[in-house]
Amino acid sequence: MKIAIVSDIHGNLAALEAFPETDCDQIWCIGDLVDYGPKPREVIHWVKKNANVAVRGNHDNAVGFDVDPRCSPAFSGLADITKTYTLGIVSEQEQEYLRKLPAYVEFNVGGASIYCVHAVPSEPLFGYCSEQSDQWQQEVDRISVDVLVVGHTHTPFIREVRGTLIVNPGSLGQPKTGRPLACYALYEDGKFILKEYEYPIQETEEAIRNMPISSRDREALIAVLRTGTPPMQVLEAKEDQ
């Protein structure tokens, strides 16, 4: 069985349309379909049509219920602005789809127990846990599964903690790896691997420049795509040059 795992697409349709795994048996989406990117509606439709498993991220929750996504200070301004943009173009049916996405799902594949959640089991939407965090010991103890699949941090990793394999595919639409490459994970032949690929990033940049937001915010969004660096750091560096 071949399974592709994507997360944190964030309205980046160009990255999604360039997804190289076209022969998968299943696709799992670990949340955050919307915000930051210019094409949230199209991403919602793609996930609804193609994903066998999908969970709700903090940005999906924010748009679905019109609440705060509770982002870090570096991204909170862009999150608020793009949430307003997203709410202005999505339909009530699309909002409802986001609202109804489960906070987590648990199932079995090939004899292995799987738990998918956007952030962490103790705080499915908002908990932030980096790869090396000691908190993973408490998180895996809460669920007792073979594989825990998470997203939210936009940084890919695979780590084993107390017999549980933790898989974070990274972000397909807004990676924070220092490289402008879309990230995902693949399960094949009984193993999870991390992968990344180039996509026509200029298409996303052009669409961002057509968004009805300030030029500074547009440039910040583009800078994050290009550099994987928090937006204010990029803009401040440019202004110092």
Q: Can you walk through the features of this model?
A:
This protein has 241 residues and is of the alpha/beta class. The protein has one domain: Purple Acid Phosphatase, chain A, domain 2, CATH 3.60.21.10. 38% of the residues lie in helices and 21% in strands. It has 9 helices and 10 strands. The strands form 2 sheets. A 5-stranded mixed beta sheet has the order 3-2-1-9-10, with helices on one face. Strand 1 (2-6), helix 1 (13-17) and strand 2 (26-29) form a beta-alpha-beta unit. Helix 7 (201-209) packs antiparallel against helix 8 (215-227). The longest helix has 17 residues, at 73-89. The chain is globular. Mean pLDDT is 94; it is low at 234-241.
Blueprint of the fold:
Layout: E1 2-6, H1 13-17, E2 26-29, H2 40-50, E3 53-54, H3 58-65, H4 73-89, H5 92-100, E4 104-109, E5 112-117, H6 135-143, E6 147-149, E7 157-161, E8 164-168, E9 182-188, E10 191-197, H7 201-209, H8 215-227, H9 231-240
Parallel strand pairs: 1-2, 2-3, 5-6, 6-8
Antiparallel strand pairs: 1-9, 4-5, 7-8, 9-10
